[in-house]
Design goal:
Elements: H1 2-18, H2 33-44, E1 55-60, H3 63-72, H4 78-81, E2 84-91, H5 96-110, H6 117-129, H7 134-159, E3 162-163, H8 171-178, E4 185-194, H9 212-215
Antiparallel strand pairs: 1-2, 2-4, 3-4
The structure holds flavin mononucleotide (FMN).
């Protein structure tokens, strides 16, 4: 058991030191359908607060569409040189249908009777938790999208796939480009994925991280 634990830890460390925020992708290299599916699974399986998953992930392969992101991302070329550009979105606001469809889905998947005390209790817990200001809702939903990003970055690292998390873009312009507002969505973060170019000097830079002793305190 102890040995198993040690192996797992070193794999995590290896993957997370291998990864870095790619500045230059090799535009000739593409993810296989299996690779793409495996990292998208990490998004789908991301845990979220109360399990509501008020988010959507857009996968862009089309070269012309990727090209349109370059000016919206302050000329950062990762958005076009990558194999796939992921746009991580949240819903614009929590709606009645989000709650009812989730409760229904829970009943079906877990084989619960409808109506039941258990489901009613679950639904009222959801409603009382979501009884927050719009500003709080937005912050809360954004947090969930960042969790998905974290999961995605780790999954990519484990699979030997490169990525670059990107906040450096204009969300309103991306919303406009993709017609997201009409779809009830808002872009939160971009994440191009693919394979690093051999010319990306950032791959050789040592990681800058605070020391474990500074970051972690055992009480
Ligand atoms: C939320 C978030 C937003 C980021 N936005 C950008 C970005 O717009 N462009 C970029 O080149 N790197 C971006 N980065 C990369 C960070 O600068 C990088 O992750 C950090 O310096 C640590 O370096 P490493 O990921 O290479 O280990 C972002 C990272 C995170 C987590």
């Amino acid at each position: 058991m102890a040995v198993e634990k040690r192996i797992t830890k070193s794999r995590i460390e290896e993957a997370l030191t291998w990864r870095y925020a790619v500045k230059k992708f090799d535009s000739e290299k593409e993810l296989s359908p299996e690779q793409l599916e495996s990292v998208l699974t990490a998004l789908q399986l991301t845990p979220t607060s109360m399990g509501l998953q008020l988010m959507k992930f857009l996968v862009i392969k089309d070269e012309k569409l990727k090209e349109a992101f370059v000016p919206l991302a302050f000329n950062q070329h990762q958005v076009v040189d990558c194999s796939h550009l992921l746009v991580l979105c949240r819903v614009d606001e929590v709606r009645e249908e989000h709650i009812t469809s989730y409760v229904e889905q829970t009943a079906i998947i877990r084989g619960l009777k409808v109506p039941s005390k258990q489901l009613d209790g679950f639904e009222s817990m959801l409603r009382s938790t979501l009884n927050m200001s719009r500003e709080q809702q937005v912050k809360w939903m954004d947090n969930q999208v960042y969790l998905a990003l974290g999961n995605l970055l780790t999954a990519c690292a484990v699979e030997g796939i490169d990525a670059c998390p990107m906040e450096g873009f204009m969300p309103d312009k991306v919303n406009e480009l993709l017609g997201l507002t009409e779809k009830g969505l808002q872009s939160v973060i971009l994440c191009p994925i693919g394979f690093r170019s051999e010319e990306d000097k950032y791959a050789t830079f040592p990681k800058v991280r605070r020391k474990t002793a500074e970051l972690i305190e055992h009480l």
